[in-house]
């Protein structure tokens, strides 16, 4: 066995990942960041095009300290990352909304949420093995276990798909939990105050029109 | 009554709002754009800071053809919009995920979604009446009707809150609906295929610890 240095439990804060406000809501803890990323599959990817910002929703997957997004080789950010040297500066953000915080005052209304913001430079993945692993991770983020129950990409599909890698280096989590923080002088106001939790769930799976009737719903979908 | 020119039913496509791929998924229809925006309250706001992209989740509200976001006067994008002349170039994106599309092939896995992307320049709102209207719209996006059942912002709170306005001009919607699009040669594969719908809902409201017991849950929360 080769010895490796222990991985620090937290990411190092930088000027970009230290918030100007509500610093108590920020976290650089590696496990916290991973757990927020692993609970989702849709991120918002920001990049700069002709000097202006662009923000696009896209799927992602995590493998260790690497985040992957994919797209057609013809799509803008993936073309730009391929052309750019040394890579495409991006900001990738994942947000979960957990509850609506209703205070007595309009001013103190808020949202309970957990988010991760990653700053870095995205690079196109060229190694075929890494590309396959990344695509599996993206599919498995959407439905855990699904990559084992579908036909893997063939050579033609792989060459039509571009994958971007973004290393988890300059990264922070931010979250808000708990009830409203009303001003002392507002406590007697007659408005209902508290938190409305948000629930996410899945409806009944709808089979494709051309699905053979003997193909049963797999376990990983009944337990989703 | 003054006569006004009829508002066009669609936004004018531009180089930035015409997708490089899947153009059939794009729409510039005004009502489609409004309905996607009005169904949500959380957007991802992109801007450029020191040449690099930044993407932050934030609440928004719509009033006609104007979108508003708010924040502390000390927060970065709001400070930048205040300093910048003539405004802060932004990209504001709203995304709803409607279903997971599971194809027989990994390559054809997808997401049913609806999104709106707005490109433009954000300006700080200085008119007090517009600022109040914007803040009401943001609260009412989260919970319709809530702005009438909370204490409005006072002068001190208003001055601590900055509001950015982004006009709906360069805007497009994009959506995917329907089942998977498998390759003909994959139709005999044994994998389950179809769509898993996503459901969003609300849990039971949790009253604040200091809520007086005689304050009842308002109707607009029981019907949320």
CATH fold assignment of chain A? Pnp Oxidase, Chain A
> Helix amount of chain A, in percent?
10-25%
* Name given to the CATH architecture of chain A: Roll
Structural class computed from helices and strand pairing of chain A:
alpha+beta
The structural domain count of chain A equals 1
Q: Which parts of chain A are unreliable, with pLDDT below 50 for 5 consecutive residues or more?
A: none
Number of E-type strands of chain A: 10
Tell me the number of helical segments of chain A per DSSP (H or I, 4 or more residues long). Answer: 5
Description:
2 copies of one chain form a homodimer. Chain A is an alpha+beta fold. Chain A has a single domain (23-180, 215-222), classed as Pnp Oxidase, Chain A (Roll). Helix content of chain A is 19%, strand content 38%. Chain A has 5 helices and 10 strands. In chain A, strands 2-3-4-7-6-5 form a 6-stranded antiparallel beta barrel. In chain A, strand 3 and strand 4 (66-72) form a beta hairpin. The longest helix of chain A is centred in the middle third of the chain and has 15 residues, at 128-142. The two termini of chain A are 38 Å apart. Chains A and B meet through strand 2, strand 3, strand 5, strand 6 and helix 3 of A and strand 2, strand 3, strand 5, strand 6 and helix 3 of B. Strand 9 of chain A pairs antiparallel with strand 10 of chain B.
């Amino acid at each position: 066995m080769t010895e490796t240095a222990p991985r620090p439990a937290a990411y190092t804060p930088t000027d970009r990942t230290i918030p100007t406000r509500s610093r108590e809501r920020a976290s650089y803890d590696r496990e916290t960041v991973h757990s927020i990323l692993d609970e989702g599959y849709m991120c918002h990817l920001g990049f700069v095009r002709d000097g202006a910002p662009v923000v696009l929703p896209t799927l992602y997957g995590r493998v260790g300290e690497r985040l992957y997004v994919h797209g057609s080789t013809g799509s803008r950010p993936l073309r730009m990352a391929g052309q750019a040297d040394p890579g495409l500066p991006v900001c990738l953000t994942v947000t979960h909304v957990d509850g609506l915080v209703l205070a007595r005052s309009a001013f103190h209304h808020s949202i309970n949420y957990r988010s991760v913001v990653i700053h870095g430079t995205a690079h196109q993945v060229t190694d075929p093995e890494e590309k396959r692993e990344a695509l599996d991770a993206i599919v498995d983020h959407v439905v855990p276990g699904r990559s084992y129950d579908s036909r893997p990409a063939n050579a033609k599909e792989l060459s039509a798909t571009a994958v971007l890698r973004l290393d988890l280096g300059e990264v922070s989590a931010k979250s808000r939990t708990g009830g409203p923080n009303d001003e002392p002088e507002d406590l007697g106001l007659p408005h209902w105050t508290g938190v409305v939790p948000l629930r996410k769930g899945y409806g009944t799976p709808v089979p494709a029109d051309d699905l053979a009737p003997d193909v049963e719903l797999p376990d990983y979908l009944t337990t989703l």
